[in-house]
Amino acid sequence: MQRYDSIVIGGGLVGSAIAYGLARAGLKVALLDEGDVAFRAARGNFGLVWVQSKGDGAPHYHRWTRRSADEWPALAAELEGKTGIAAGHQRPGGVHLCLGEDELAARRAMMERLRVQAGNFGFDYRMLDRHELADLLPGLGPAVIGGSWTPYDGHANPLALLHALHKGFAEHGGRYVPNIKVKEAGAAPGDFCIRLADGEIGAPKVVLAAGLGNAELAPRFGLSAPVKPLKGQILVTERARQVLPLPIATIRQTVEGSIMLGDSQEDAGFDTSQRPAVMRTIARRAVLAFPWLRDLQIVRAWAALRVMPPDGLPIYDQSEQFPGAFTANCHSGVTLAAAHANLFAPMVAAGELDPALERFSARRFDVPAAA
Amino acid sequence: MTEVELAIIGAGPAGMAAAVLADELGLDTVLIDEQGAPGGQIYRAIERAAPDTPLGADYLAGRPLAAALRASRIDYRPNTVLWHADPEGALFLATAGRTTSLTARRILLATGALERPVPIPGWTLPGVMTAGAAQSVLKSSGLVPEGRVVLAGQGPLLYLVVAQLARAGAPPAALFETAPLENYLAAARPVAGLWAGRRRLLEGLGLIAAVKRAGVPIRRGMRGLRAVGRRRLERVAWEGGELAADYLLLHEGVIPNVQIGLALQLRHEWDEAQLCWRPAVDAWGQTSLPNIAVAGDGGGISGAGAAVLTGRLAALDAALWLGRIAAAERDRRAAPIRAALDRERAFRPALDRLCRPARPVMVPAEDDVIACRCEEVPVGAVRRAARLGAQGPNQIKAFTRCGMGPCQGRICGPVVAAIIADTLGKPIAEIGTWRPRAPFAPITLGALADLAAADFAPQVDS
Amino acid sequence: MFRPRPEGPGAAVAVSIEGRTVTVPVGTSAAAAVLAAGFDSIRETPVEGCERGPYCMMGVCFDCLAEIDGAANQRSCMIEVQPGMRISRQIRARTIDPEAG
Question: Is A212 within 8 Å of A225 (Cβ atoms)?
């Protein structure tokens, strides 16, 4: 039996960020992952490092998101220095566009609530009218009447981030084990073992970061992760000269020049097929915001399953029945990557989650914790 | 939304033959093709061909097929791109910048083949093209490459193009054959296949003779082929020599175009004899989905003659499936077609062995050779990602961008799979493929946004 | 350079390639017309700025992307020349006109 300081199950954005943080801290880590064909919410990610829409009514989530966004530039620089891979992170602030008066009023009200809820932490935002937006965003469509802006928002390349985390993990001595679907696992307090094809591995700590797979996996470790799939489709255009100076909630231009368009949500179970009707809706909304988008060709598109906890907020837990077993689930794997690497991983290493994360426990769903 | 009984994708020999027979059988059929005129690749521009065309008699054999297609009553839609298809039969099309859709009770994929990528150093230089590319230009416009033209690789098409260019007044400077010696030895057995396919064998020998008569020097056993030049091709180099050249036309055989079948997630198998992926089909071309069939080279490389025959078999099977004929009639009409198909395919195993690509065609030795042309990703990046733990093409795509460009892996797919297999020490059959996604070819956001509500089946919401 | 074969077909089409008028046979693709006009490359890649010419001439490689009648990144091998067609090389990423649409 090969022994490690920690096992991380799941090599997506959440698992690889946590594994990277642990390995960087000097722990001996095994990162288990499925094979080439798997749901992999990381492949469906739009790439926003987004703050302004997060945590209305849940100030702890807003703060966690803000802290992650603040840590992001340092993580990106560190990863690039260590691996040579640039995550393409930019933080010029971000805009959420509104197409109608009701939408604008609701948005303004939400921004104000966030400011109030932030209390002494502070929340800097501006509501921009059409003229101000048109100065900022070339060719803004007449349908846009206003929007919200905060300085905290940015974007990055999710797959470059994933690559950098994996490479950084390996550079710090981490062991990556692919083609594993964890079926048999032994759990005792501070003592976990998982059967692999060529033997067993054991560790006093295990982190469940298997995205949608956590739902089935968690009970075996005395945890709960009631996450469900939420399908999202994305369109990507041909590369163009840089024209958008900052990301919009559903439209962003990558460093390479392609323009990415989202944002759809379908409750379709585990079906990952594309639907032209949804693709059309994404195209229509985008063209309303920027009529000049009409001429751009879509060169690729996809549908992927993202992870959605029941209230949209992350789930972080340590098992009471089996201390040393942790879960981590969230919808925003890119935004929270820095928090996972720089804040969550050290908590796991220390064996204790910070009280600030208590409200993210799955106990909030009133689900019995023990299997 | 318009509903048809049978939608055929591709107007090459398989698609044309299927369409003509489907029409005779009374099936309500639509034939969709990207090109502006029927013929696919092999019979490109056949309707405009002159009787004394340098392309030869085999090419002219496509004329009656195209004429029969024109004379039929089917709904033929040229210049039409299929950009999305779902397994239930909804097809989304784009033509002249406008999008439409229709549903088909049965789909027949007849998308043919493409040339295997030949990733030699310098293959992305201007002036390096496929042999088929030069042939396509000759067919559609009569233009020929000027200057010193070198053809390199192996397979019947290579010799055919040399002969055709020579007849067109532009004899190439050289033909470099890359077949390794063991190919000749392997092809010599079994003798039975050589005899059954003797007509093809003689045709091949005739081609070689034609090339010699044209005075084109042939060099065999060429290794280490490289295209050299600064901003365009200047020289062709190989182990032991080099030659100044203006054009290098590469060819290492053809492989099925499986893009749409993979997008539909039909079951595919790795064909070790032809070193390619092809859909798993039964004797009628039926795939793993009951309403979808494949005909022609898209189901496995067998050539134009076989494509016509498998197209006809697929049309018969479609007629049975749609309830137009009984099984007995289908089988009765199929019998002579099957006999002809057996004859067409007799030489294929020997040909596959004779023209098996040498290892460097599948797995380039040099790390700086471009693997993904669209995204300019070198072989070395693919190897490094596989060593980092990427287990297959999808993770490689995530780590390197291979397959993200507009060709969506059509060109780089085989190379990337072979490199992964080689790096991980696994057979290619285990490596798997990408899942191509809509749009299968680019469409504008405007065309997508303009898709009408009438183009969606009733149960779809917005 | 591609040229008409000695006994080439008669009918010809006049197109504009990089601002120059060029005459090519009926049925020529825009990609082949660029080669006939004497250009070696038809585009510069968006990322590295490498020069590329057409490779497959059948619509699968997307290396022949050119600007045709003002539309960027068109598969020029799949487009037959028409009288007066304006063809330009695609230089790196396309431009965007924010006033369009």
Answer: no
Q: Does A257 touch chain C (CB under 8 A)?
A: yes
Find the mean pLDDT for residues A332-359: 97
Q: How many residues does chain B have?
A: 462
DSSP assignment of A28-74? -EEEE---SSS--GGGG---EE--TTS-TT-HHHHHHHHHHHHHHHH
Query: Tell me: the pLDDT tens digits for A204-230?
Result: 999 999 999 999 999 999 999 999 999
Instruction: Return the structure tokens found at B96.
Output: 């002249």
**With left for phi above 0 and alpha for psi between -120 and 50, is residue B43 left, alpha or beta?**
alpha
The matching CATH number, chosen from 3.30.420.10, 3.10.20.440, 3.40.50.12280, 2.40.50.140, for C12-91 is: 3.10.20.440
Closest CB to B143 among C2, C59, C80: C2
Q: Is C48 touching A (CB cutoff 8 A)?
A: no
Burial of A370 from C-beta contacts in 10 A (0-12 / 13-18 / 19+): exposed
ipTM: 0.95
Helix (H) or strand (E) holding C46: none
Provide the residue type at B167 as one letter.
R
- Cβ contact A332:A211 at 8 Å: no
Q: How far is CA B456 from the centre of its chain?
A: 31
Give B74's contacts (C-beta < 8 A, 6+ positions apart): B19, B22, B23, B29, B30, B31
Distance, CA of C65 to chain centre: 7
Structure tokens that stand for A211 in this block: 């995205």
pLDDT interval class at A333 (50, 70, 90): very high
Mean pLDDT (whole number) for B332-360: 93
Tell me which residue has tokens 């297999």.
Answer: B421
Domain annotation for chain A: domains and CATH numbers: 2-49+159-226+311-363 (3.50.50.60), 94-150 (no CATH), 228-308 (3.30.9.10)
Checking DSSP bridges between strand B98-109 and strand A6-9, what pairing results, if any? Answer: unpaired
- Per-domain residue ranges for chain C? 12-91
Of B438, B442, B456, nearest to A238 by CB-CB distance is: B442
Query: Count of alpha carbons within 13 Å of A365, Cβ hemisphere only?
Result: 20
- In this structure, chain A runs to a length of 371
CA distance B254 to A217: 46
- A339 SS3 class: helix
The two beta strands, A94-98 and B174-177, are: unpaired
Angle, vertex CA B225, rays to CA B219 and CA B226, nearest 5 = 135
DSSP B347-380: THHHHHHHTPPPHHHHS-S-TTSEEETTTTEEHH
Q: Chain B partners of C58 at a C-beta cutoff of 8 Å?
A: 41, 114, 132-133, 136
Return d(Cα B331, Cα B326) in angstroms, integer: 9
| Minimum-distance CB partner of C96 among A243, A256, A297 | A243
Chain center to CA of B120: 20
Q: Is A239 on the interface with C (CB under 8 A)?
A: yes
Q: Mind giving me the DSSP string for C70-100?
A: TEEEEEGGGSB--TT-EEEEEESSBP--TT-
This prediction's pTM: 0.95
Give the ranges where A154-237 is alpha helix by DSSP (H). 158-171, 214-217
Q: Are C34 and C76 in contact (CB under 8 A)?
A: yes
Question: pLDDT tens for residues B236-246?
Answer: 999 999 999 99
What pLDDT is stored for residue B210 in this prediction?
Answer: 87
CA terminus-to-terminus distance, chain A: 26
Helix ranges (H only) for B52-174 are 57-60, 63-71, 131-141, 156-167
C100 contacts in A (CB within 8 Å)?
139, 291-292, 294-295
Asked if A156 contacts A17 with a C-beta cutoff of 8 angstroms, the reply is: no
